[in-house]
Amino acid sequence: MFNLSPAQLRQAADLKEQIEQLQSQITALFGGNGTPAPASAAKPTRAKKSGMSAAGKAKIAAAQKARWAKVHAAQAAKATPAPKSAPAARKKFTMSAAAKAKISAAAKARWAKIKAAKKK
Per-residue DSSP letters for 15-63? Predict the structure, then answer.
């Protein structure tokens, strides 16, 4: 609309004037208060949608709760099986002081060997 030429704008203004004149002639013919009613004034009204009754909603909610209870019960049964013979709890592994000293000495020897190779 912004890139219209002046001639096109003038033509649009002339057409609008003609429409207004014709509108006033129609109003004079049929009578009225002289001002035309806006085109968007009469909106069609929608019929109210039929909803679900409270009893129907309650039945659906109860059925859904029953389904979820069944699912949760199945999951709980899988999660906690009946103890047949539970394996003994594993003892936590602890290293003796002698074993720690042996590993430490071996690591120190490896690093000493690597550092000696770098100096050469």
Answer: HHHHHHHHHHHHHHHH--SSSPPPTTS-PPPPPPPP---HHHHHHHHHH
pTM score: 0.28
Contact 27, 34 (CB under 8 A): yes
pLDDT digits (tens, 9 = 90+) for 91-105: 888 899 999 999 999
Centre a 10 Å sphere on the Cβ of residue 28 and count the other Cβ atoms it contains.
Answer: 10
Q: What are the residue ranges spanned by the domains of the chain? A: 1-33
Distances (CA, A) of 120 to 108, 111, 116: 19, 15, 7
